[in-house]
Each structure stands twice: as C-alpha cells, then as structure tokens.
Specification:
Length: 691
C-alpha cells in the first residue's frame, strides 16, 4: 500500500482528503498538494446507512472538481458513529466481571446528580444492567500484591450465564489493576478459551488510570460501541478499496490526533469525540495562520453548538468530557456543548413559554424550509423568516430553501403566542443566542479568561449564521470566519498529527529520591509511545511531551503539570516542585510553598507530525466591496434593506459595513449592524465591532 501511495504522489495529482460526518451533513475538504487547490463539499447524511454518503461525496468531488481517488495519498476521517451509538443506546449487550462485593461500582459512580438543583433530576441508567454484572472472588492489594487469585470456577459460571443472557462482549475490571494487570489478563485469557465468540476488554488495557469507577466506565464505553464502530470501519475500508484508494484510512481522535483504522476497531473509545476535536484542531491551524493568539471557537451544526478555547494558538485539553450522559476519562480536546443547533426545534410548552431545543430535526426530515418533510419550526426556519437566510442554494447545491414552508412552520408558533411571525422568529434566535451565551460564560469562568480579549471563530454550517450576534452579546470585539467555515472539521483531519496518549499511575512523594522511579516510568512510556507511532506507519522523528498528575498530600484530586524530561534525568526535584506550585497558582490563585507534594501519575503524549500543508495567500488591495443586490431583513426591531455579498467576489482587502448578508457554498454569514468587515490575505472574513 505504501508503494501505491508513492506512485500516486509521483504520477500527477496528490490529493489529501479530510472527511467529517455530522448529524446532518458529511463534510469534505480536499487539497491537491501539487497545486495548492482546495475543494470542499457537503452531502446530506444517511442515518440508515452510515458511510454510504462518503462514496456519494467522493463521486461528486470527482465530477465537480476533477478529484481522482486513485491519487489520494492521505485520507482522514471523523465520524459520529460511536457517540451516536451511546446517545441512542444502541450498543452491544455487555457483561461486567468485577471483584465480588464491588458489583455496584458503576451504579454508585461518584454519587453526584447531573443537576443538583433540579427536583426532577435523575441519574442515567448504566450501560450494563445489574443482572449482567458478575462478582468474581479475587483480590489484590493497592501495592499490586495478590491476596486472592481469581476463582476460575466462578469465571466459568459467569461466562455461561452471560452467554445465556445474550452477552456480545465482556468487560473485566478489577480493583488496583492500574498497579498490576495480571488478574484481569488471566480472566481475559480464560474467557477467550471458554467463549471465543465473545469480545473481551480489560480496564487496564483501555486506560490504566487510578479510581475504579473512571477506569471501569471508560472500558465499558469502549466495549459498548465496539461492534458498531468495528463493523463501520471494516465497511469503510472495503468501500475505499473498491474505489482503488491507495491511502490507508486514518481516524481523528478525541485528543485531536490521528490513528489508523486497525487501531480504531480496538480503541473505539479514543474516537468518540473525533468530530468535535478535529473542528478545534482545524480552527487552531487557521488561528495560527492568521496570527490569532486567543480564540473562542463556535461550531454550530444541525443538533448542537460546541465551544472551545484556543490559547497561544493551541487547543486546551482535559478529561471528564461527557459522552451523552457518561463521563469519558481519557485525554480529550476540551469542548463544551449545548443542544442548540440549526435544526433545533422551537416549541411552546404547557405554560406558554417559547423554548428552543434540545430536540433536533436532524437531516431527516430536517428544518421545514428544507422541503424534506419537516413541519416544526427550527432555528434555521427562524433565520429564513427574518430574511438572513434563503437567498442562494445551500450546501453546495444540495438544498434549496422554501421560504413559504419556513413561514408556515414559524407561523404556527406565532399563532400560539399571539405575536407576529417575524417577532416570533426573532424570539427563537434570541433564545438560541442566550442559551449559548450562558454556556460560554460558564466556560470562560472555569478557564478564568476575559472573553473581551478573544476573537470568536464561528464555523460549521450554522456558526456564521449566529456567531456575530453571540460575539456582540459577549462584548467581544472581533469575529473571524475562514474562507470555508462549513468544512473546518474536515480541514482539522487534514492538518492533524498522529497522537497517542499513555499513562502510568504511581503513588510517590515528590523528592530527589523518588525521581529515578518517575524517570523510569517516563522512559517506559517513551518506548511505548515510539512503538505506537511506528505501528501507525510513522518513521520520522517523534515529539514526546511529558506531564504528571500531582497534588498536595491530603487533596482528593490532582492537577496535570507539564514537565521537562531533563528535570527527571538531572534529579532536579526543585524544578518539578516549582512547576507544580505555578500550575496550582494559575488554576486556583494560591499555592502552599511548604506543602508536601504527591505525584500520582506520569503521562506521555507521543506526537508524529503530519504533512506540512499551506494554502495560497494573496496580497490585500483596499477596495470597497460591491454588493450583488439588496434585500429586506428583519433585524430585531424593524425590516431594513441590507446588502448581500457573494463570498466568491470578495478579495483580500475588500471592506464593507453591516448589517449585511454574505452567501457562499457551505454557509451564510449574517452580519449585524455596527460592524466593519474586511477580508484578509488568507481570505478570512474579519469583523470588528464599533466601540
């Protein structure tokens, strides 16, 4: 296959393609590396046959752009198959084998309610029912020494019962396996002998982190989506093979990196947030190209709005991101989400209050204005009624807006509320923006940042529609929209690096005497990381990033501290201590210089840099933009006549003022009054708000 890639690159065109499947559209971003030409496309998804739209999109790219799949040397793919499996609860029927006496771990969880202030809040049902949890007599001390070997007779009985109950796979999670995984491994081997038709995952092989609930739940998520993800990826490989694509399919991961499809079939949990993460990676790349240091991203699709912070040109990372109703405890790009998107349905509740979301019309039937059978008013329909949307074909000609259907859908709500239809549509938009405002304020408070210092970068099909209005409410001064904001997530796959995360949990006080053991753990992780990169086909230099989870003795939770490997090699405990105090100060505004420090885990991120890509740039020429025409828009208080610009006619240096509408192939940019717009040399559209 590598030889085929080399031949493809040498014989004419060299296509690199990024693909992202969302809830409504699948996005394509294709770069012809030899010429620098970029082609993009959106195709409606097919929920009944995930992946079929991929072949449709490749065929359309070939028809419209001269794309040749046999000249594809890089193919990166993000998908929502895993996360949708969890949200829809259509995953595998699993059994859990754990220590006898600890069968209630996943139900007890952390004893936290999702919303502590709601009288009607309830905790989600576990993905494994209580009758499919089996206690195996076995015990290991926290230091890794075995006090009771697993009872293999009990394992045999549990396997028989699990099979009789229809289990498709088994998760093995024992206490302290982060320290010593031998018991889990022996039980997995026994299951493989007794029931080879069942797949088995152990918690230590998925993510060997301390705390039994976090380790168990992560392994359960991995097993729950395994059959559907594995089947999907196998079908994907076959479809690409049928099109004579030489490139091995790569997958975007929750941590913003890539892995190959073979690993994706096993490490399914690593790609649960692939789409949202790749969007932030694409936005980070665009921000660095434009010299933007602090950016708030706004990714609005058909179902949700996702927010993330980019600081110093780099995305922020964390753990504990929610997958549906369940926390994911592997490193992920930090993204906050809310159920408000272009397809979010507006309704009037029993008290006569107008609400928006979280229910979405999705791609089928979609908003009413799509003319695909939807009858309920959505955010997109409200944009049409106000006049911001519906003046050109959408999604590269995939959709034509029917304004009459939008007015009828919003009109039904207007009748219930006793308000004019335009005011009702504006109220829908105001509610959507206000709900996003609340979520962004929470994000800013947690991160301790002043959003007035940030630039908003809207993307996704719906980001440019509402982004400028949100920025204005947040008091932000700048908005930057890329040339093709609708396919930024697909772009993220093109520019992403290989990235694998590895962890060793070790309890150790921080001292000069403890550094050799920590250094030994780092060296073992470094070897593991380099081996992982080699297995992904990366043969160039690797970037190894070290960090440690640390805390003051007596604290319940730790913080991640970035370290230099030289500090460990040189035995510089004081440098490690200073880094911890500084990080603690930044997060909590205090530190204890006399406090005893405990190191909990060593983390390593192995990064294999992807291909260096660049897009054409053009010098700016100051030139007022000439509108294509003028049109009426309801701006909140009255109907105004505003300019409509075609994005293809805007050149670097073009300027104009809002209110205005900018139409393009993949989205529509709604620009409120009081803004100055300019196109930069990267073809980004920059908005600045009047003081």
């Amino acid at each position: 296959m590598d030889g085929a890639i080399a031949d493809a690159a040498q014989n004419g065109a060299d296509w690199k393609v990024g693909v992202d499947i969302g809830g409504t559209f699948i996005d394509f971003c294709a770069l012809e590396a030899c010429s620098g030409r970029v082609a993009s496309l959106k195709v409606l998804t097919t929920p009944e046959d995930p992946g079929a739209e991929l072949m449709t999109g490749l065929a359309l790219l070939a028809e419209r752009e001269g794309f040749d799949p046999t000249r594809m040397t890089r193919f990166v793919h993000g998908t929502t198959v895993g996360i949708n499996t969890i949200i829809q609860r259509k995953g595998a029927l699993l059994a859990l084998f754990t220590n006898a006496g600890f069968e209630d771990v996943i139900e007890l969880a952390r004893l936290r309610m999702p919303d502590m202030y709601s009288l009607f809040c309830s905790r989600p049902e576990p993905l494994i029912s209580r009758d499919m949890v089996f206690g195996i007599p076995a015990r290991m001390h926290a230091d890794g020494s075995e006090t009771q070997a697993p009872d293999m007779a009990a394992v045999e009985r549990a396997v028989a019962t699990a099979k009789a109950n229809g289990a498709q796979g088994i998760i093995v999670s024992f206490l302290h396996s982060w320290r010593n995984a031998a018991q889990e491994a022996s039980v997995k081997a026994a299951i493989a002998r007794l029931a080879p038709e069942l797949f088995v995952f152990t918690s230590a092989e998925v993510w060997p982190v301390i705390r039994e609930y976090e380790r168990s739940s992560t392994a359960i998520l991995n097993g729950y989506v395994h059959p559907r993800v594995s089947g999907y990826l196998t079908a994907l490989e076959e479809r690409l093979k049928d099109r004579d694509v030489p490139a091995r399919p790569m997958l975007t991961k929750s941590n913003g990196g890539l892995m190959n499809a073979a690993e994706g079939k096993r490490a399914c949990v690593n790609m649960l947030l692939s789409g949202t993460a790749s969007g932030v990676i694409g936005a980070s790349w665009l921000a660095r190209q434009a010299g933007e240091d602090k950016v708030l991203t706004l990714d609005i699709g058909g179902t949700s709005a996702d927010f993330a912070l980019i600081i110093g040109g780099e995305p922020q990372f964390g753990t504990g991101e929610l997958i549906g109703e369940f926390p994911l405890h592997i490193p992920s790009v930090s993204v906050s989400s809310i159920g408000v998107g272009g397809g979010s349905i507006a309704s009037v509740d029993a008290q006569g209050v107008l609400r928006v979301g979280p229910e979405s019309a999705g791609s089928t039937p979609g908003p009413a204005c799509y003319g695909r059978g939807g009858e309920r008013a959505t955010v997109t329909d409200a944009m049409v009624v106000c006049g911001w949307l519906g003046h050109s074909e959408m999604a590269y000609g995939q959709l034509r807006i029917d304004t009459g259907l939008a007015h009828r859908a919003v009109g039904e709500l207007a009748a219930q509320l006793g308000r004019p239809v335009e005011q009702t549509a504006q109220a829908i938009l105001d509610i959507a923006v206000s709900e996003m405002f609340v979520e962004v304020e929470k994000l800013a408070s947690r991160a301790g940042v002043d959003l007035r210092e940030f630039t908003l970068m809207p993307f996704g099909g719906g980001g440019p529609m509402l982004g400028a209005f949100l920025a204005r409410e947040l008091g932000m001064k700048r908005v930057m929209a890329a040339r093709r904001p609708g396919v930024v997530s697909a772009l993220g796959g093109l520019v992403a690096d290989l990235r694998g995360d590895f962890i060793r949990t070790i309890f150790s006080p921080l001292s000069v005497a403890s550094l050799p053991a920590i250094c030994e753990a780092f060296e073992a992780l470094a070897q593991e990381g380099c081996g992982w990169l080699a297995a992904q086909g990366h043969d160039a230099a690797a970037e190894l990033n070290l960090s440690c989870d640390m805390r003051y003795v007596g604290q319940s939770y730790e913080i991640e501290v970035v370290l230099s490997p030289e500090w460990l090699v040189d035995g510089d405990a004081e440098a490690v201590e200073r880094a911890f105090h500084l990080t603690h100060e930044q997060l909590y505004d205090f530190h204890d210089p006399e406090g005893e420090i405990e190191l909990v885990s060593v983390r390593l991120s192995a990064v294999g840099t992807g291909p260096a890509l660049s897009f054409p740039q053009t010098d700016e020429i100051d030139a007022p933009a000439v509108p294509a025409r003028r049109l009426p828009v309801y701006t909140g208080l009255s109907v105004e006549t505003v300019d409509l610009h075609d994005r293809q006619t805007l050149v670097p240096g073009s300027t104009f003022r809002g209110p205005a509408v900018v139409v393009q192939e993949d989205t529509t940019f709604a620009i409120p009054a009081g803004t100055q717009a300019r196109v930069d040399r990267h073809l980004n559209l920059l908005l600045t708000f009047a003081e």
